[in-house]
Amino acid sequence: MVRCKYYFWIIGLLLPLLSFSQKKKKQPDYAFLSLPNVVVDGDLTEWEGNFYLADSELWQCALSRDAGHLYAAVVIKDPALLLEAIHRGILLNLSYNKKKKDGARILFPVADRERVRALQQDPDRDGTDIRADVLKSCKGYHIYGFSKVRDGLLSLQNDYGIQAVAKIDSNQYLRYEAVIPLDLVPYKSDEIAVQLLINTQYQQLQRAAKERTPNYGGMYGIYRPMGPTIKNPYGEETQIWVVDTLK
């Protein structure tokens, strides 16, 4: 019985170590671009040849900054990932320093559920492509953590200079572009971390699992209950972090 007890104790110590052997592929260290005369129209002509993840068949993105603004661009090629993006949104998150944490966030596009349901139930639209109409159903930007701007839904036409555009091009790719005035971000250092994330169901489940998983302390240290493994259906990360200076 004692031998059996120690056997399970050893297995409990080894399992976390085995999980560390399956580390994710580390992404390169990206830096902010300094593209001139960026126009937020969703065409992304200024960004061509400058995207991060240039070899990805799934998606590409980039971040650029000037003296007063941060710009973001995303191209999504994968049809399944595109659908998740137009229904759940693309998150642009500006941390207040170089730590990779939640800061000033804008989530867009986020489809209006009632409008989507109506489109899906419309017999005249049966079998037709409703993605462009789903994009048009978005009522505004979901905003959190900015100074001078109240958390919640911000109008697409606003006086703060926050703007984002998303549209489907002739190649059936989703093109996204956004701009954030830096004076709306209460950052605490010149070096900040910025996240671009496709808000997939996988990302939502991963975040929920982290938030609800308790830690139990004991004589053998901290124990974290092991639940079902959440697997990324896309085979590569659908988010990036860029840590760089604003000056």
Total tally of structural domains: 1
Class by alpha and beta content? alpha+beta
Report the CATH architecture: Sandwich
SSE pattern = HEEHEEHHEEEEEHEEE
What is the typical, i.e. mean, pLDDT? 84
Largest sheet: 6 strands, antiparallel
Q: Using only CA atoms, what is the Rg?
A: 21 Å
* Count of DSSP H/I helices: 5
How many individual β-strands? 12
How much strand?
A: 25-35%
Helix share bin: 10-25%
Cα distance spanning the termini: 64 Å
Strand order of the largest sheet: 6-5-4-3-9-12
The low-pLDDT segments are 1-23, 216-226
CATH first level:
Mainly Beta
Kindly report the CATH topology: Immunoglobulin-like
Gross morphology is globular
In short:
The chain is of the alpha+beta class. It is 23% helix and 27% strand.
Provide structural commentary.
The radius of gyration is 21 Å and the shape is globular. The protein has helices at residues 2-20, 79-88, 113-121, 131-136, 201-212; strands spanning 59-65, 69-76, 90-94, 104-108, 141-144, 152-154, 163-168, 174-181, 191-198, 216-218, 221-223, 239-245. The chain has a six-stranded antiparallel β-sheet. The chain has a four-stranded antiparallel β-sheet with strand order 1-2-8-7. It contains five helices and twelve strands. The chain has one domain (28-245): Immunoglobulin-like. The protein has 247 residues and is of the alpha+beta class.
